[in-house]
Amino acid sequence: ARPFIARPFIARPSPPQWPPTHGGHFGDGFAGGPPHATIAARPDFDRFESRTDSDSSARSPQTGSIGDPDAWFGARDRSIPSPFLADSPALRSVASSSSAGNPSGDRIDYAAPTADPARRHFAPGVRPGDHFFDPTPQTSPGIALIEPAPWDFSPDPIYEPLPYDGEAQVQVYAGKRLYATQRPLIEWGRELYGPGQYPRSLTFLGSTNLITPQLLVYGDFRSGIASNRVAGNTKSIWANRLNLEIDFEITATERFHAFAGPLDRNGQFTRVEYDERNATWHPEFDPDFDLAFFEGDAGSIWGGLNGDVMPFTLPFAAGVFPMFVQNGYWINDAFLGGAFTIPARHSPLLDIANVDVTFFTVFDEVDSPVFGPDDDPAKVYGVTSWIEAWNGYTEVGYAFVDDREALDRSYHSIALAYSRRYGALLSNSVRMIANAGQTPNGVPQSADGVLLVIENSLITRQPATVVPYFNLFAGFDRPQSVARAPAAGGILNHAGINFETDGLTGFPTLDASANDVWGGALGMNLLPQDFSQQLVAEFAFLQTFGSAVDQIPPGDQYGVALRYQIPISNAVILRADAMHGFLENSDDVSGIRFELRHKF
Question: Between the CA of residue 69 and those of 17, 21, 417, what are the distances in Å?
């Protein structure tokens, strides 16, 4: 047996521990008395009497235990396996001499735990299998075992009538296969959802903000053909669109992102138009980036520079970045500016489980019908919040749109929304977008209205695959979004597929301006159990009111629409749309289109 080397221990108060190690602890009192505190002990190395265990060679190297591993391992006081006690001599006694731990000089037996608070003690080693020789659970003194009552456990299952298929049980694990997924066009550095362990990260931004570079280039290519009838004219179109995303991830929270649409410009796409007499080629090439921004978390960056682990959380973005707020009704655009969020706050007093607040400032490139084709005149200062409280989800936003030109078309915009489920019957959202305070110089008001939207979907027996919905809206005067990209359609774009532009072929829709109208959309969204395809059918209508001579829709409108889409492969989707709109005081509109979308 190896000679035992005594080591000093730093003793401290030790809480009771459960379950106790077989053979007892030292310092926790389960086997030797009530829990007690211990004090620092100075070992007297020359007074130890050692005797070699006769059975030490038969012991497992993991059968010893240490009562206070702090001096060796820096851990909390607990029993853990110790290789030092595997073949060690048993520490039996101390000679009659005073020490810091035994000032009286009394002889202390160390073969068993003791209630004496002056010393830490080693528990005797346990042979492998000892636990199974005595099935009685180890308990503290004064604890009695109670036999379980017959009703404490349900009967064992009966398997005899059921056939057993061993191969089927193996296939639960061995029969798994990877789904075919489309990889990014360019994938450098760390893979996107790759298998295996990640390589060792870099640390020059700090050991708590690890760097694992990743460059991804991905996107999709859309090509569609359509036959559209608008304003009494029928036109066939073949249009193409390329969405190119470039993402350079630095850490888990910091990245640079850019987006380019080289086949579109100002909401128009590269296309061929045929109007029954002539075919016209319309190239709309634009090599410039539409988005380019940096986003990250100031808390992660600061923590990395100072060696702390996320001392606070403050995500932010700066550059030309997109915002999509209030389901696209309030903001659906990309602009030059900055934003930061105060996340994950709560208030028990107000019954708020979680709230995020985002502050944003826009300096340029604000798209809006208020300013026409010019995206330079306005700045925007705003705040929006998402609140989980009051049995639902609340969104509140305010923005001031500041016109820097002499026309002074500045205005205030407020957005409110509340969403929740009502039992197992209805999912509901109520939204309000309001504009006020616009007093332009020499031009009519263009942002002076209110939009109310109520979005509903019924909860059926198959809530993920059979979704009936009905949406209602009412627009007063001229409600406007704070910012709206040209390809995003009107403010009612998300009220139903009869109002939704396709962002490619100029597919016709009902009027989506919400200018002095009320109406709704009633539809059904159907998917099979494997989500392999989708069919949407919808009826929509809008009714005009008021007598403004400049009202955008000339009269009442009604529409029916169908949409179908199915994946052809893991990278290609086929989508088909058809609609017909019945317009009062204007020519009817109709369209049919087919589109292939290839993602990469």
Answer: 15, 15, 57
Report how many domains make up the chain: 1
pLDDT tens readout for residues 504-513: 999 999 999 9
pLDDT tens, residue by residue, 145-163: 888 888 888 888 777 777 8
Share of the chain above pLDDT 70, in %: 77
The secondary structure element, H or E, covering residue 306 is: helix 298-306
Residue 133 backbone dihedrals phi, psi, to 5 degrees? -70, -30
Q: What is the pLDDT of residue 135?
A: 63
Instruction: Look at residues 484, 481, 485 and name the one whose alpha carbon lies nearest to residue 264.
Output: 485
Which two tokens mark 393?
A: 């989800």
- Residue 350, amino acid: L
Residue 366, domain member (yes or no): no
What pLDDT is stored for residue 599 in this prediction? 95
The per-residue pLDDT for 170 is 87
Residue 251 domain flag: no
d(CA 431, CA 484) in angstroms, rounded, equals 17
Buried b (16+ CB within 10 A) or exposed e, 22-42: bbbbbbbbbbbeebeebeebe
C-alpha 414/C-alpha 383 separation (Å) is 10
Q: How many CA atoms are closer than 13 Å to the CA of 587, on its beta-carbon side?
A: 10
Q: Is residue 131 part of a domain?
A: yes
The pTM score is 0.71
Contact 317, 295 (CB under 8 A): yes
- Yes or no: say if 529 and 294 are a contact pair by the CB < 8 Å rule: no
Within-domain flag for 33: yes
Residue 331 has pLDDT above 60, yes or no: yes
**Residue 104 belongs to domain spanning:** 1-150
Structure tokens at 497: 């597929």
Question: Does pLDDT of 79 surpass 50?
Answer: no
Element (H, E) at 122: none
